[in-house]
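INFO  loader      accepted 1 record
INFO  loader      residues=91
INFO  predictor   begin
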Amino acid sequence: MASDRVNETTAVRRSLKAAGYTAKVGHGRGTAWSWIYVNVTGPWTWDEFSRDHESKAYAIIKHAAGRDNRHNDSQTDYFCENILLEYKKRI
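INFO  predictor   done
INFO  writer      dumping tokens
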């Protein structure tokens, strides 16, 4: 199980780097073990990132992690993408 998490983290990190993003990637612990945490840093303001880069970075993460076909199911209130994408402007 741990090797799957390492492979998933590595795939996400490499895919983001190939797309030109600088990011730290990790997994949650305990009951949040399946969550992927991604912290992207870049030269953009928050508005520029959210407008021009957020959806692209999120799609890259989903694809690299093999979570393309997962989505919110409002009937069961079950969230299965488990991706947290954060952005911080590089200083």
